[in-house]
Backbone:
């Protein structure tokens, strides 16, 4: 992993202003920001590990724990909230046994609650990986999720 | 006749399958050519978000001026065949309340009352094609600005009366004038695209659908204040916006609208994109700047304004996406003309995101000063299923809930503020009798406890306690004195927090306490949630005489607590029911009744 | 320029922080997250005061409010007393074990607010320790998380690699929330134990080896084996030799 991390990091100039971008890249590639990534990035930039750790725990786009293969983002913005996002949280918990912030035991799914994806007109909205699903209901939920199970060998 | 098929490919329409529609239309066009039929001269353009996402995918055909809604891939053949015969596919037209089919976009009751400036190009152009933008007058304003002095540019912005569209409503011209006055370099221009208010998505739509209007606005600002570098801070969640803005920056650079020598003028501007880290507080200007600098997004006290000491302690103008999108029009047509729109103190237009329990949801741009009633009932078509209107929440977590008695208030920067709410960035979440105002207040406070940066005491500690109290009330543990305690905490948080997030955090609680106090009291004293939302206080029963045994409730029950068969009324097993309300929401016949637990 | 604080006319330089002006004029404003050697942060909000400028009244934190215009300041009127009282009580609910906060609550008759839940410990997350550590250059600790879950911690919640054991964090902490133990030979802070170095000549304690190395590296010298006093003495002897030789 060291090589992969370094090739990600060294794309950026050695300035603090690129720290967030570099960590977002790690998040994308490894589904989390690995500890080694934070340490190597601190060396590259010449800043303190504590500073980057602070950022990694502050920004919601970054996580220190590995996320599942598929990331389910459930919007709990106000529009989605009043159109039944809560029930979907319940529904996913029953379907996959994971609460927001958790990853299923088989490592397939992580559930994240997000604050408004700006798609309020088609609320409630759910995003799996990069695909948006509009007006999700408890009835539609299993079908959407199952599709991701099947493509996984 | 050569036709243009404009297919909306905003995030909303994409979610509804517009990419598949594009494919189907392309296939159909090719197939018809191959089969030797009369060729349909049509080309497809992928446009940005039309704002009417709920009815997507949307296909607009020019010059015929036909707009189709909820188009599915299998409609492609019909659409093209009809075109060939100069006919219209009736079933895909928008149907208004009277059941009439509307052919023209501009006759659609959703679009007709709108007045578009910030959204002027969206849905009409391909955001990936700079020529499209230019053909509609794009970059004319920048060309004009290059022949003006900084002071002349700012004067037009001042004359326009434009105020910041992000929520605070600070006069844009005054901000620019101040920044221009500092003799410290470098100076920066920053676009705040960290749209975080839940329920607002105009900035996403503009960045996705018309990125050049923002870039042009920023370039004009940079000329006016003497900045040579700028940043667009855009939410990482807005994938399509990021993609389109990056592409637009590249093509603007290529054509010389940006770069080391803007259109041969010798002036320079370098713009780059910074992806937001996912923190609502970064919508606050000083937190946003901290984030760009590569730090934790904590705001600082603004005793010295960021226009004097902003990014890396240099003079910085930060405006929001919609504000910048207005600038090219102001410079092109002149500030005074813009000032004739809207109201005296809030000139121009404003984009609102009309969402929630309203029939026609989406983005609407109207002149400032339109009433809430006009927005919700004329443009929005009223409440879904004609249920009673209860409240409209404006301004996101900094705003408040406005009751029906105040529907005739004009919406502008100053009016709603007098009533404890605010226009804010323009989110309008419409709520009906099935929304619990206590739960809504709890929702916003919970949101803020997670999104507060946690730096200062009142916001961090005060919100924590407010959440405890509100959760208690929603779960039936409310006590005498809770409301007074909430008010006390609200006052301290509003008065002594460090930044605008904290200072405005009590608004959702204060407005609901002010206008819906009886609902709080019902929760506390009668352990009853009138809206039937708070599950610990509610049970659901099926009214036998209303049930048509369609089974929809059963399908939507997450815990299989509903039994029933065809021909017989369904029944809810109270032991396994979790009172989530999914069944009531699903029922088309109003057969499911919410009751208080105490009344059981 | 002149401003009026609690009815008293005070002279100050434009840009001077209000808290400094008040203190210089013998007006006491309570503070927690402020430390004279470090840049102000404005986090704890205990030092709030009301400023009336050109007829406009606003609540500001005096520790970082630069006086730029003539104004009238109220450090302890009814409004401020009430807000400060609630802030102090909020802090106490966060850090019930802190003695200084308990004392301040009493002194400012903070309202009881009995219904609010208490946390545990002494830390009020003011971040002064972080400020001290980074100002010094070690940068071993930082704020972690955000919102109501924010806390102060070393990275990865383990003894911080960059900590040099200087103990500045514990010294500046207004609520004595940072555990810090020291005996003849070792010092422990952030669950990291350091060996203490003693002067090769007089045996006085000189701090941790990491601390000495850090200082030496900053100064571009070799870490000293003598304490300040002995080093001066040695230097004096060398000088004396030099003079006596000439």
Residues:
């Amino acid at each position: 992993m060291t090589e992969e991390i370094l090739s990600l990091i060294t794309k950026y100039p050695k300035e603090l202003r690129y720290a967030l971008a570099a960590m977002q890249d790690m998040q994308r590639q490894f589904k989390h920001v690995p500890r080694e990534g934070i340490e190597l990035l601190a060396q590259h930039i010449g800043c303190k590990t504590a500073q980057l750790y602070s950022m990694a725990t502050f920004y919601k786009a970054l996580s220190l724990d590995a996320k599942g293969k598929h990331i389910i983002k459930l919007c709990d913005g106000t529009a989605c909230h009043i159109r039944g996002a809560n029930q979907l949280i319940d529904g996913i918990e029953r379907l996959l046994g994971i609460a927001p912030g958790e990853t299923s035991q088989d490592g397939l799914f992580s559930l994240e609650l997000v604050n408004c994806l700006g798609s309020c007109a088609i609320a409630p909205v759910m995003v799996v990986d990069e695909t948006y699903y509009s007006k999700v209901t408890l009835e539609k939920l299993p079908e959407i999720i199952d599709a991701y199970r099947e493509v996984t060998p | 006749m050569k036709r243009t098929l404009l297919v909306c490919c905003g995030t909303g329409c994409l979610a509804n399958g517009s990419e598949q529609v594009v494919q189907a239309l392309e296939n159909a066009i090719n197939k018809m050519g191959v089969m030797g039929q009369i060729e349909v001269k049509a080309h497809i353009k992928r446009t940005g978000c039309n704002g009417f996402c709920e009815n997507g995918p949307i296909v607009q055909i020019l010059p015929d001026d036909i707009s189709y809604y909820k188009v599915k891939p299998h409609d492609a053949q019909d659409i093209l065949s009809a075109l060939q015969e100069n006919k219209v596919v009736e079933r895909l037209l928008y149907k208004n309340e009277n059941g009439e089919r509307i052919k023209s976009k501009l006759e659609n009751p959703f679009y007709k009352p709108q007045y578009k400036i910030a959204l002027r190009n969206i849905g009409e152009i391909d955001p990936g094609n700079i020529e499209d933008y230019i053909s509609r007058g794009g970059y004319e304003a920048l060309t004009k600005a290059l022949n003006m002095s900084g002071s002349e540019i700012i004067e037009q912005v001042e004359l326009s009366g434009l105020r910041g569209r992000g929520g605070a409503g600070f006069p844009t011209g005054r901000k620019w004038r101040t920044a221009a006055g500092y003799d410290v370099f470098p100076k920066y221009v920053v676009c705040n695209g960290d749209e975080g208010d839940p329920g607002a998505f105009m900035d996403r739509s503009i960045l996705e659908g018309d990125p050049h209007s923002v870039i042009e606005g920023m370039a004009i600002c940079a000329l006016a204040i003497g900045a040579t570098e700028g940043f667009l801070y855009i939410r990482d969640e807005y994938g399509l916006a990021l993609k389109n803005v990056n592409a637009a920056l590249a093509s603007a650079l290529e054509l010389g609208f940006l770069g080391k020598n803007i259109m041969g003028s010798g002036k320079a501007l370098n713009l780059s994109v910074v992806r937001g880290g996912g923190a609502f507080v970064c919508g606050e200007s000083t937190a946003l700047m901290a984030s760009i600098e590569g730090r934790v997004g904590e705001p600082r006290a603004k005793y010295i304004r960021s226009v004097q000491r902003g990014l890396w302690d240099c003079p910085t103008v930060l405006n929001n996406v919609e504000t910048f999108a207005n600038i090219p029009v102001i410079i092109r047509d002149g500030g005074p003309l813009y000032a004739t729109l809207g109201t005296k103190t809030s000139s121009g237009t404003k984009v609102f995101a009309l969402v929630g329990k309203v029939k026609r949801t989406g983005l609407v741009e109207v002149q400032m000063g339109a009433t809430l009633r006009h927005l919700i009932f004329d443009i929005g078509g009223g409440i879904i299923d004609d249920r009673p209107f209860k409240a409209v929440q404006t301004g996101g977590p900094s705003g408040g809930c406005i009751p029906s008695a105040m529907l005739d208030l004009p919406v502008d920067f100053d009016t709603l503020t007098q009533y404890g709410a605010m226009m804010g960035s323009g989110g309008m979440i419409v709520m009906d009798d099935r929304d619990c105002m206590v739960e809504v207040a709890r929702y916003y406070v919970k949101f803020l406890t997670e999104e507060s940066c946690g730096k200062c005491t009142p916001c961090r500690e005060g919100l924590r306690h407010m959440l405890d109290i509100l959760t208690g009330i929603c779960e039936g543990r409310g006590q005498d004195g809770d409301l007074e305690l909430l008010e006390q905490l609200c006052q301290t948080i509003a008065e002594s927090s460090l930044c605008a997030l904290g200072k405005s955090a009590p608004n959702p609680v204060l407005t609901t306490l002010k206008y819906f106090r009886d609902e709080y009291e019902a929760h506390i004293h009668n352990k009853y949630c009138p809206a039937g939302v708070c599950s610990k206080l509610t049970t659901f029963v099926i009214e036998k005489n209303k049930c048509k045994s369609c089974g929809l409730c059963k399908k939507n029950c997450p815990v299989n607590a509903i039994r029933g068969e065809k021909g017989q009324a369904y029944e809810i097993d109270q032991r396994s029911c979790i009172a989530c309300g999914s069944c009531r929401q699903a029922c088309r016949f109003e057969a499911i009744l919410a009751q208080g637990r105490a009344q059981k | 320029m002149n401003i009026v604080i609690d009815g008293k006319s005070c002279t100050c330089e434009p840009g001077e922080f209000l808290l400094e002006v008040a203190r210089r004029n013998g007006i006491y404003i309570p503070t927690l997250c402020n430390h004279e050697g470090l840049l102000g942060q404005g986090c704890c909000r205990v030092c709030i005061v009301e400023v009336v400028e050109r007829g406009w009244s606003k609540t500001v934190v005096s520790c970082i409010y630069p006086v730029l215009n003539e104004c009238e300041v109220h450090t302890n009127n009814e409004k401020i007393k009430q807000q400060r009282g609630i802030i102090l009580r909020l802090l106490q609910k966060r850090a019930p074990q802190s003695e200084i906060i308990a004392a301040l609550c009493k002194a400012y008759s903070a309202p009881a607010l009995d219904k609010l839940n208490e946390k545990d410990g002494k830390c009020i997350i003011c971040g002064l320790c972080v400020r001290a550590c980074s100002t010094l250059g070690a940068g071993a600790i930082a704020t972690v998380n955000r919102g109501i879950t924010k806390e102060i911690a070393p990275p990865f919640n383990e003894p911080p690699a960059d900590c040099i054991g200087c103990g500045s964090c514990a010294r500046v902490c207004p609520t004595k929330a940072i555990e810090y133990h020291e005996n003849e030979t070792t010092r422990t802070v952030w669950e990291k134990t350091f060996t203490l170095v003693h002067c090769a000549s007089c045996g006085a304690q000189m701090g941790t080896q990491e601390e000495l190395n850090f200082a030496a590296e900053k100064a571009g010298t070799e870490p000293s084996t003598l304490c300040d006093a002995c080093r001066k003495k040695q230097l004096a002897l060398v000088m004396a030799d030099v003079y006596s030789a000439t």
Helices of chain C lie at 18-24, 78-94, 99-107, 128-136, 168-172, 209-219, 228-245. Residues 2-107 of chain C form a domain with the Ubiquitin-like (UB roll) fold (CATH 3.10.20.740). DSSP finds seven helices and eleven strands in chain C.
